[in-house]
Design a protein that fits this description.
The complex is a heterotrimer. Chain B is of the alpha+beta class. Chain B has helices spanning 3-16, 52-65, 137-144, 166-176, 183-187, 194-206, 214-227, 238-242, 250-265; strands spanning 19-28, 37-47, 88-89, 92-93, 115-119, 128-130, 133-134. Chain B folds into 2 domains: 3-130, Beta-grasp domain (Ubiquitin-like (UB roll)); 137-265, Fumarate Reductase Iron-sulfur Protein, Chain B, domain 2 (Orthogonal Bundle), CATH 1.10.1060.10. In chain B, 59% of the residues are buried. Classes of the chains: A mainly alpha, B alpha+beta, C alpha+beta.
Amino acid sequence: MSWFNQTFSSTLGKKLIMSATGLFLILFLIGHVAGNLQIFFAEADNGRLFNEYALFMTTNPAVKVLSYLTYISILGHVFYSIALTQRNKKARPVGYSVENASANSAWTSRNMGVLGTFVLIFLVIHLKSFWYEMHWGGIPVQNYDGQEVKDLYVIVKAAFSQLWYVGLYVFCMILLAFHLSHGFQSAFQTLGLNHKKYTPLIKKVGMAFAIIVPLLFALMPIYVYIQSLG
Amino acid sequence: MSDELFFQFIAKKLITIKKMNLTLKVWRQKNVNDKGGFQTYQVSDISEDMSFLEMFDVLNEDLARKGEDPIHFDHDCREGICGMCSMYINGRPHGPKQKITTCQLHMRSFKDGDTITVEPWRAGAFPVIKDLVVDRSAFDRIIQAGGYVNVNTGGTPDANEIPIPKTVADEAMDAATCIGCGACVAACKNASAMLFVAAKVSQLALLPQGQVERKTRAENMVAQMDAEGFGACTNTGACSAECPKGISLTTIARLNREYFSAKASSENV
Amino acid sequence: MKLESKIPEGAIGDKWTKHKFNVKLVNPANKRKYDVIVVGTGLAGASAAASLGELGYNVKAFCFQDSPRRAHSIAAQGGINAAKNYQNDGDSVFRLFYDTVKGGDYRAREANVHRLAEVSVNIIDQCVAQGVPFAREYGGLLANRSFGGAQVSRTFYAKGQTGQQLLLGAYSALSRQIKNGKVEMHNRTEMLDLVMVDGKARGIITRDLITGKIERHSAHAVVLATGGYGNVFFLSTNAMGSNATAAWRAHKKGALMANPCYTQIHPTCIPVSGDHQSKLTLMSESLRNDGRVWVPKDAAKAKGLSAKDAANIPDSERDYYLERRYPAFGNLVPRDVASRNAKMVCDEGRGVGTTGLAVFLDFSDAIKRDGKKVVEAKYGNLFDMYKQITGDNPYEMPMMIYPAVHYTMGGLWVDYNLMTNVDGCYAIGEANFSDHGANRLGASALMQGLADGYFVLPYTIGDYLAKMPYERVSTDHAAFEEAEKAVKDKINTLLNIKGSQTVDDFHKKLGKIMWEYCGMARNEAGLKKAKGMIRELREEFWEDVNVLGSNEELNMSLEKANRVADFLELGELMVDDALNRDESCGGHFREEHQTEEGEAKRNDEKFAYVGAWEFQGVEKDEVLHKEELVFENVKLTQRSYK
């Protein structure tokens, strides 16, 4: 299998992994944001549907498979980005003293690593707050028609009633938006999908995605916070 | 017009031609082992009709008269096609204008009193030989790895035997227009040579003559590119924006396609 | 010395075929026992090195640039001629042959030119097979255009970058042989002497331009593909590094220099803008297909007239002098005619621009007729280039152009096999004198370079090598020792003069002398004066030049000094040749010999020969040898483009 190793140890192969994992995470975001939209309607039934959804997402075997793929994608995306960044740094051992990079490229495209790092830090905090709590934390339990269901909604409300926490979320979603604004279309370019018929559309969809999805995510803590004030 | 009037007229014209005084910060490095550093020079009475390299000629003549070592820089055709000139001017390869080489950059793009910083191309794969001169033989080795069609001289079919759609020929030409100057590498924050490799791979992948070795070519050229120590492409687009010939990013997408499909389907295990 | 051109017997159309059969062959298994040195990697050198490597010879190739891809062939814009007759407009090998001999004003060797026309068709096939993206029609077949005064469309082109694409084709073939280990490539290395052993060329001495190391290279034959010597004029369309050193040092070792006075002045270059000017930029001749050349009728209105104000001159006050004087060819007359006419109107005081040394090339009629879009599609990149350099927009105002030195038809004398009179030393491409006579037609330089490298030399060199023993000459041989010492001594001398003037100071002075007295028009008095001036300048050079730095480093100043030292000798020979050739022909225009209309007037009785000069020592006059030109297939007529 030397050809296989060759392929994925080449710079192009590593980029292919970045692209594939990135696209998978984009799909994940779609699922995640769609499901979480329930937050906006959760107060009506005191979080019952939301909690049942959370239970489904943590127990359904198909979802489990997807979630493992997501973990692998995250790890792969991070690992290969570090590997590539190191290589890229080595490719220019002596830098320029004057650089005017904004004249030829977008800031976001040059700072994916920085943006990605912040997104990763966010991810750790985010996972600790909810994913970890849901799996292993001491979460209060609700009884819905005789079934014991962890009340994640209470945790969410508690977390998002803190202003600094909401602020952190909003800030990180802005960074995610920037990350996606380059990452979405870049993933297609890396796969070799660049065609004058479709690329303009990909770029538009990518930009829309990069704005809408993080915006929805950011609205959630804001909404919950405002609710908590009332 | 009498002669006298004529001379007055010319004199007036000459006054109206703008002359500039500039400060140059230039990278000086004796040889590949020297650490190197910036030196500052003043140049005066620079005409806006001069090319950037002619301005350097003037400075070098001055230095030579003072017995100082002239600033070494690569240049040859001075009409934007040989790809030899290679200066990183005020933070950009080939200076502030797009789609030209340094030799085509004219001083009218600068203002009196400007400070101009000039550095060599920076990349591990392009070691500095002296001052602003770098070694770009890595590009030659990439072409040697497969940037050709394996035909011997003679015995080739008639040139019109295989019709090639005009659009395809034109697209191949747009890729083939690469002058191998290395501005793409210099501009890229990762010092990636993808645009250079993509241009050659695209040209030959588009043309029927390149089909026979299409897969091996993509595999070998990419392997050589990686072996030379160039960085990876992160799709910033800086290369294409700074390319004197405006080679498109679509060539890079094509290279990605060519490489992945070659890796997946070629006979090379 | 008797010059043997070794032209094969037989009818013109059969000579090459017969000759190919008659040449001795080297057994495929024995080719690896022969080493060949190729100096220069332009169209001729790269194609020769690649083809010889493919055949199995061990090739060592040298170029002074950082990569073979940068040779100045790359700058050719317009195209390459080939007698394919794809356009069904009556072209043929014979017509291309005929046009080339006529275009060269009957000063080329018939047999060579016919061979060139024959192999021209193979070149196109070869290049297409290499993946050269020539322009095509919508049906997918190759496109052609008419170029440089030809009345058939036989020019193949790749946008305005034909030279680049052909060179990259040859470079890719060369790269393939480098990869295969058949060619050993030496970049940034300059040849400084030819080494002769027992009367044969057996090697060269080189300088590594980065380390300054002087090296010896031995071989069974040496091929010089080092281009022309246009930079003798300082300002020319040549690349800054283009030089005559390799050819000139071979000349000093015995190779004859033929017709050195034949220089081509290209009519459409961007005029000089000031003293800082380092080179002249050529605007493709194809511009004359749609551009109209004019100056004001009235000298008073011409003085200082800028392109911006050109529109103020009404049509009735404009002199479209080429259309007026040559109604049949109009703006498309051959280069020498167009250049001389530009000089003539400027001499009359009707030149425009601040210097008065420029004429207008006007596209307003073409834009009116075809629309801006069509003009842009044809010439967009040239217009952009012009605007970049001058700051003027040619869509809105006429271009200003003036002739500039472009190509040198003269060069090392070679026989039919492209071998100089020195055994084992070959010269190909612009470096030799052979195919263009006194004037080269547009789109023929690329053709000749590739013809020599791909299709002629690989055959003829075998004939010589087959007769050579396999034994290699050791680089420890006394001849190498001696040559190396001479090179080192010369370098040390240059470094130790420590005078007060820079190398460029001398080069510029030489250029001015050459342009003034041995440029577009020459006369006896001027040439005699120039000879004295060059001698004085040369003397001054060896006393007062200041070459900085040391040999053991990258040293531009030393590189230039070596080259200019040779130009200072070559310049004098050009003047001698121009003086000797007491007639006008093609690019050589002696004012004493012109028709009433100011056209070049040949003297076929006295001057239908190749003037080949033999070096005698630096301060001695060279000795002239004549190769009589015999015309059996082309009738000598007064060239007329009326």
